[in-house]
Amino acid sequence: MAYEMVPESFEVAQNAGADLSAKLYHLVKVDTDEDIILAGDGQACLGVIREANVENKPVTVQYGGIAKVIAGGSFNAGVLVAADTNGQAVLATTGEYAVGMALQAAGAANEIVSVRLGPYGRVA
To answer: What is the pTM of this model?
Structure first.
């Protein structure tokens, strides 16, 4: 079972730039309008949605600590993960921005797993 550890200092609430009401535990970024939107394939991420909402309403994003994240496919524990085209966590590959390290394995897409969020940077 996935778990999370969220110090309050690792959360931010900001305006949703799209309808994110069905995107709990998805990876997100900040767009040029300073709104929260889903992160795309291998893009740098702000963090993961903890409280989802509709467009033009605030969403709460966790950007540090241990977070629940929805997987976009299977991967092992201990690997770096990045966003896929749907804002789900997948195995980070060369050139992608890793958002965290998987603390649990994901057996398939749409599983919720624990990820240690952190500034891992671009995978070499």
So the answer is: 0.94
